[in-house]
Specification:
The protein has helices at residues 11-26, 50-66, 84-87, 119-123, 131-144, 166-176, 191-202, 219-225, 231-244, 263-275, 303-327, 357-363; strands at 2-7, 30-31, 40-45, 71-76, 102-105, 107-108, 127-128, 148-152, 181-184, 209-211, 249-256, 280-285, 332-339, 344-347, 352-355, 370-379, 382-387. It contains 12 helices and 17 strands. The protein is globular. The structure holds iron/sulfur cluster. Iron/sulfur cluster (SF4) binds at residues 110, 112, 114, 117, 119-120, 154-155, 188.
C-alpha cells in the first residue's frame, strides 16, 4: 500500500507530516511520489489565512473529482472533521528520509489569544513534549543521517517541560553532536526569545537565524492585535542578539493592513524593517478569519490598500535581504546540501548558497552533507563561493 502527502503551511505541519510518514513506514507502507500511484492521500492543510485555506479546499475538491475511489484524508489546521482515529498512535519506529532536514515537533497548541489568529481554536492550549523524549527523538534523527534538525511547534515560546524552556532545550539538542546543527523555528518576541539568544550565543551549532514574528512596528497595532510585547522589546532582543552574534540573521512575520492601521502605523513597520535590517520577512496582508476577534473589528482597511502596504513592505524586506546577503561576502558559511548537482543548500542564516560550478562536480557532495563555503559573491540574496576544507 502507498501513501502520499500534500503538506501546506508552516514547519509544524511538515514536522507532523514527517511523523505520520514514519508511522506509515513502520507499518509497511510505501511513500508514493504522485497522487495517481497512492492508495491513500493525506492533505495536511493550513487555515492561517483565508487564501491558504482556500488552496487546501481546492486541492481536496480536485482530488475528490479526479480520484473518486481513493481515500483522501484532510488533517492539520483545517476546518474539517479531523481523522484522528486513523492517525492515532503513529510512532517513529522507522525514520523517514524523505526530507533533507528533520522537522522535530516539540510543542503543540497555543495559550495566547491574538486577535487575528484562528490557530488556538484548531490546536488548543499549549502542550509540550517531554524534554528527554525530544532529545531521544533528535538522537534517532542524527543516527538516521540527518545533519540539521528544525525544531518546530505551534508556539515555541510556550515550550515548558517541568520548567525547562525552549532555550534549555535548544542548548541540550546542540550538545548532542557539535558537528550537526539545530535550527529553532519562530519564537514570539518576549522572555523566551531573550533566553534563546543566550543559548544561541553559547552554542555555535545553533543556526544563526532568529525568527521573531513581530507583526507590526506600531505599538498601537500590536496592542489591538493583543500581542503581549512592545516594539521596544523586540528591538532590545535584536540588539542583544547582534551584540553577541554580529552576523546573526533576523527574520520576522509582518502583517499589513490590520483593522485600524493608519498610514503612520504602516510607515512605522516599514521603518522598523529597515532600521533593524531584517534579513528575511514573511509579509502577509491581513485576512479576516471568521471566528476571530479581528474579523469583527471596526476600522477595516480596504483589501486593495492592504495589498499595497504588503507590497511596499515586501519590497523593503527584499532589499534588506539582498543587503544582508552582500554582508556575507568573504565569510565562511555552512550549507546542508539539498541540491547535489550544484552542491547547494541553506546556510545557517537561511540564505541559499551554492558552490561555484567549477567546484561542484569535483566535490561530489551528497544530500544532507554539511559543506563549508567561503562566500565570493551574492546575486540578489543567493550566495556562491568556493569550498573550505578544514
Ligand atoms: S501566539 Fe498568537 S499568532 Fe501565534 S499561534 Fe498563538 S494566538 Fe496564534
Amino acid at each position: 500500500m502507498k501513501v502520499c502527502f500534500d503538506t501546506f503551511g508552516c514547519r509544524l505541519n511538515r514536522a507532523e507530516a514527517l511523523s505520520m510518514e514514519a508511522g506509515f513506514l513502520a507499518r509497511g507502507w510505501k511513500v508514493a511520489s504522485s497522487h495517481a500511484e497512492a492508495d491513500l492521500i493525506i492533505v495536511r492543510g493550513c487555515s492561517v489565512t483565508a487564501k491558504a485555506q482556500h488552496e487546501c479546499e481546492r486541492l481536496l475538491e480536485h482530488l475528490k473529482e479526479k480520484y473518486p475511489a481513493k481515500r483522501v484524508i484532510a488533517t492539520g489546521c483545517l476546518k474539517q472533521k479531523r481523522n484522528e482515529a486513523l492517525l492515532r498512535d503513529l510512532d517513529m519506529d522507522r525514520i523517514p528520509l524523505s526530507t533533507t532536514r528533520a522537522f522535530l515537533k516539540v510543542q503543540d497548541g497555543c495559550s495566547s489569544n491574538c486577535a487575528f489568529c484562528i490557530v488556538p481554536q484548531f490546536r488548543g492550549t499549549a502542550r509540550s513534549i517531554v524534554f528527554e523524549d525530544v532529545l531521544e527523538q533528535a538522537k534517532r534523527f542524527f543516527d538516521a543521517g540527518y545533519t540539521e534538525i528544525v525544531v518546530t511547534g505551534c508556539n515555541l515560546s510556550q515550550y515548558n517541560s517541568k520548567g525547562r524552556r525552549i532555550a534549555q532545550l535548544a542548548a541540550a539538542l546542540a550538545a548532542l553532536d557539535g558537528r550537526r546543527r539545530i535550527r529553532i523555528g519562530s519564537v514570539e518576541p518576549g522572555p523566551a526569545a531573550a533566553e534563546l539568544v543566550d543559548a544561541m550565543a553559547a552554542n555555535a551549532n545553533i543556526c544563526r537565524y532568529l525568527h521573531l514574528p513581530v507583526q507590526s512596528g506600531s505599538n498601537t497595532v500590536l496592542s489591538a492585535m493583543r500581542r503581549p510585547y512592545k516594539v521596544q522589546d523586540f528591538e532590545e532582543i535584536v540588539d542583544t542578539a547582534r551584540k553577541a552574534m554580529p552576523f546573526v540573521a533576523i527574520g520576522c512575520d509582518l502583517m499589513a493592513g490590520f483593522p485600524g492601521e493608519s498610514e503612520h502605523d504602516a510607515l512605522a513597520t516599514r521603518s522598523l524593517t529597515m532600521r533593524l535590517a531584517i534579513a528575511r520577512a514573511h509579509v502577509f496582508p491581513f485576512s479576516e478569519r471568521p471566528g476571530t476577534a479581528a474579523a469583527l473589528m471596526a476600522g477595516k482597511i480596504l483589501p486593495a490598500l492592504r495589498a499595497e502596504r504588503a507590497a511596499a513592505l515586501q519590497r523593503i524586506a527584499d532589499e534588506e535581504r539582498t543587503r544582508y546577503a552582500k554582508r556575507m561576502i568573504g565569510r565562511v558559511v555552512e550549507i546542508v546540501v539539498e541540491d547535489e548537482e550544484n552542491v547547494a543548500g541553506w546556510t545557517g542564516e537561511y540564505l541559499w548558497c551554492r558552490l561555484r560550478h567549477e567546484y561542484a562536480t569535483a566535490i561530489g557532495a551528497k544530500r544532507r552533507d554539511l559543506v563549508k563555503i567561503r562566500v565570493q559573491k551574492a546575486e540578489g540574496h543567493v550566495l556562491a563561493g568556493t569550498p573550505v576544507f578544514e
